[in-house]
């Protein structure tokens, strides 16, 4: 009989209960006990939600991050927090969030300030984990308390528990050796602690342990492949059964490695790695469990259950008890419950599945495998009806959009003239000084702006009054920028809640959930909009605001748009066409906006691609393909304008070295990037590539309340000018200023303008 299980459940709560409890605790408004109590309640509720599964994940709950939990389990804490004598949970939050020396002085802490652990993206998801800190001196010591407590809790509730841990190779791979030492040299001692952990779990009656090794879907060199085998050989004597779990992609050349590990079972992502199944059947030992992730844990769409059964039934017949089924990965990456959604229209909702609905789908599949399709006839019929309606819906398929995509040819992505010709025409028209100054788009989102927006949303402020309020904010931004003496102005984005949502709300083919929150890091959640249909732009989206802003000044006003790749990468997207097709539809819609702005007399247009790098596939071999369509989409968006119109793009903090050729082929006239923290070293990539167009390297770290001095900025720009000719440099902050206060922004920008003047005088 097929075993049904889950790999992990969203921990934040259907109403983001964990978020609010954490923030209240951090503020000092509630007790540690109350927070712990809420954690226990969430675990209990989520285990109940998963009742009926044969195995339920335990240990996937984390107060902040599962990787940080694992670091505590392994006793791998940064040196700077060792010796802390308070509660473990508080020390855990110190690593997660840091603690400023200032807070310590104010009597909130025990000791000096502590830097937070570095945070980075979990594979190709939008979840961020706290990077394990490693060095040649790292030592590990088992602390199984958290896991054992949760197991005891689960046992008391009659949960069929399967503890979940992160495997040693993935843990090491995700870690960062601050001293650049060889991380694999730590493996023997790390593995020894894992052996203790597995023995401890066995002694507590655990039968199966899920050990996550998602790095199996990435390219591994010989040393890492060998390390895999060595490590898992050491686990052979442990008296628990190990299910090695890979997800987020295909094993490809790692198939034999994964299948050859001396463990009881292997879980693979059968959505992204369907091609692995047939070869694995031949490679796996005859008694090995094969767990197939048949429900997509990364999207919000209903599964085509009949289509899955068509290929799954023969496998079930062949594998019998050896076949397990599950979602493709932890459900951490999807919202909790579709039934919470009261404002989504019924038709669209009928096409969707959030975490709870995905578990229901799994139960239907299991029912069909165990009792035949007839035993779940109604569920399967409802599923088929919903999918058929989605496929046939005129809201999804718009022939006009399809025809426009089919008509795309190379000319659409081509500017009329090469950069030097354009640059000369733009210079003549814009007449900017050396080291022109600008900002990245947003100005502080003040309490008044937020209040007006929410009043407008609930209907206590009408459209006309809302427009007046936003225009006042725009006018304020323009006044301040003129007083500062900036060269290229922005309207300040007061009317935008979010750089993706704002455009999604105005495009046909997009929908928005009320509670579709997904954890991004710690207590932070995002609510990605749902791209469900062919994309079109019913009318201009930004022209009225930008036009108004331009009417207030004789300085050039920069039009501000979000690019197609970023909109795509920050949305839940369709599963019925390639991402590249959705991206090109977005590109055509934003292209039309670019052209409308140009028509309205806007001479400088910025198209933000903050998330371009985020979309890179896990395997380097697949980068080329992604970068090709991503760059093409940007070019389609940007390049329908006259030579005299200056196109800017912006990217947040990124490594540029390995994608610089693609950045250059985007061919924006100006690119602004986040560089201030790197002391301009990020510009090396541009320097070595001989990047030909203009660059605005950020000189103001907008993530910090610190105000850079004129001297700081002059220093940074001198560092920049060592790498890029001054004639091609702009001066600007790292990113948008929406999270800062006016009281910080004004002195910082004043110093920026002063620095520009100093540099011009020296030139
Ligand atoms: N134009 C946007 C802003 O200034 C860019 C934000 C971003 O890059 N994340 O807010
Ligand atoms: Zn940015």
TrEMBL record:
<feature type="binding site">
    <location>
        <begin position="440"/>
        <end position="442"/>
    </location>
    <ligand>
        <name>L-homocysteine</name>
    </ligand>
</feature>
<feature type="binding site">
    <location>
        <position position="608"/>
    </location>
    <ligand>
        <name>L-methionine</name>
    </ligand>
</feature>
<feature type="binding site">
    <location>
        <begin position="16"/>
        <end position="19"/>
    </location>
    <ligand>
        <name>5-methyltetrahydropteroyltri-L-glutamate</name>
    </ligand>
</feature>
<dbReference type="GO" id="GO:0003871">
    <property type="term" value="F:5-methyltetrahydropteroyltriglutamate-homocysteine S-methyltransferase activity"/>
</dbReference>
<dbReference type="Pfam" id="PF01717">
    <property type="entry name" value="Meth_synt_2"/>
</dbReference>
<feature type="binding site">
    <location>
        <position position="121"/>
    </location>
    <ligand>
        <name>5-methyltetrahydropteroyltri-L-glutamate</name>
    </ligand>
</feature>
<feature type="binding site">
    <location>
        <position position="608"/>
    </location>
    <ligand>
        <name>L-homocysteine</name>
    </ligand>
</feature>
<keyword id="KW-0808">Transferase</keyword>
<keyword id="KW-0677">Repeat</keyword>
<feature type="binding site">
    <location>
        <position position="650"/>
    </location>
    <ligand>
        <name>Zn(2+)</name>
    </ligand>
</feature>
<dbReference type="InterPro" id="IPR013215">
    <property type="entry name" value="Cbl-indep_Met_Synth_N"/>
</dbReference>
<feature type="binding site">
    <location>
        <position position="493"/>
    </location>
    <ligand>
        <name>L-homocysteine</name>
    </ligand>
</feature>
<keyword id="KW-0489">Methyltransferase</keyword>
<dbReference type="GO" id="GO:0032259">
    <property type="term" value="P:methylation"/>
</dbReference>
<feature type="binding site">
    <location>
        <position position="570"/>
    </location>
    <ligand>
        <name>5-methyltetrahydropteroyltri-L-glutamate</name>
    </ligand>
</feature>
<comment type="pathway">
    <text>Amino-acid biosynthesis; L-methionine biosynthesis via de novo pathway; L-methionine from L-homocysteine (MetE route): step 1/1.</text>
</comment>
<feature type="binding site">
    <location>
        <position position="614"/>
    </location>
    <ligand>
        <name>5-methyltetrahydropteroyltri-L-glutamate</name>
    </ligand>
</feature>
<feature type="binding site">
    <location>
        <position position="652"/>
    </location>
    <ligand>
        <name>Zn(2+)</name>
    </ligand>
</feature>
<comment type="similarity">
    <text>Belongs to the vitamin-B12 independent methionine synthase family.</text>
</comment>
<feature type="binding site">
    <location>
        <position position="674"/>
    </location>
    <ligand>
        <name>Zn(2+)</name>
    </ligand>
</feature>
<keyword id="KW-0028">Amino-acid biosynthesis</keyword>
<keyword id="KW-0862">Zinc</keyword>
<feature type="binding site">
    <location>
        <position position="493"/>
    </location>
    <ligand>
        <name>L-methionine</name>
    </ligand>
</feature>
<protein>
    <recommendedName>
        <fullName>5-methyltetrahydropteroyltriglutamate--homocysteine methyltransferase</fullName>
        <ecNumber>2.1.1.14</ecNumber>
    </recommendedName>
</protein>
<feature type="binding site">
    <location>
        <position position="735"/>
    </location>
    <ligand>
        <name>Zn(2+)</name>
    </ligand>
</feature>
<dbReference type="InterPro" id="IPR006276">
    <property type="entry name" value="Cobalamin-indep_Met_synthase"/>
</dbReference>
<comment type="function">
    <text>Catalyzes the transfer of a methyl group from 5-methyltetrahydrofolate to homocysteine resulting in methionine formation.</text>
</comment>
<dbReference type="InterPro" id="IPR038071">
    <property type="entry name" value="UROD/MetE-like_sf"/>
</dbReference>
<feature type="binding site">
    <location>
        <begin position="440"/>
        <end position="442"/>
    </location>
    <ligand>
        <name>L-methionine</name>
    </ligand>
</feature>
<dbReference type="InterPro" id="IPR002629">
    <property type="entry name" value="Met_Synth_C/arc"/>
</dbReference>
<feature type="active site" description="Proton donor">
    <location>
        <position position="703"/>
    </location>
</feature>
<dbReference type="Pfam" id="PF08267">
    <property type="entry name" value="Meth_synt_1"/>
</dbReference>
<feature type="domain" description="Cobalamin-independent methionine synthase MetE N-terminal">
    <location>
        <begin position="5"/>
        <end position="318"/>
    </location>
</feature>
<keyword id="KW-0479">Metal-binding</keyword>
<feature type="domain" description="Cobalamin-independent methionine synthase MetE C-terminal/archaeal">
    <location>
        <begin position="436"/>
        <end position="757"/>
    </location>
</feature>
<keyword id="KW-0486">Methionine biosynthesis</keyword>
<feature type="binding site">
    <location>
        <begin position="524"/>
        <end position="525"/>
    </location>
    <ligand>
        <name>5-methyltetrahydropteroyltri-L-glutamate</name>
    </ligand>
</feature>
